[in-house]
Amino acid sequence: MLEIKPKFINAGAGAELVVLTRAEFDDIMTRLAEAEEEADDVAAYDAARAELALTPNPLLPAEVSALVLNGDHLLRALRKWRGLTQATLASMSGIAQGYLSELESGRRIGSPELHERLASALDLDPKWLARLEGDRRPQ
User: pTM to 2 decimals?
Assistant: First the structure.
């Protein structure tokens, strides 16, 4: 960062001029541009926080996202996040453990009603499992 050493010149009638080197001027302009960019980032962050405050449970927890990014199926990641075994979640959802295994591997998709039961058993917003609906594709 350049040290700015302005020179002041009396222009008469109570006015003063400020003289800077080109390097000092460029440094000031760069700092202003960076400050504006930072202010824009802060405004975008504040707007996103305000929007999130209006939406309950809008995002997956970081642990779930990390598991999904590492290759786990969303349902498996959610089950692990809740600390449940397949047998426990299957029992809570009224399905067989083998069927849950097929859901978690993507071999089966399940009905929207089952997704509701799974969401209830996992104590989360059913919208988190809405992505499973997008997994419906012809075999």
Answer: 0.56
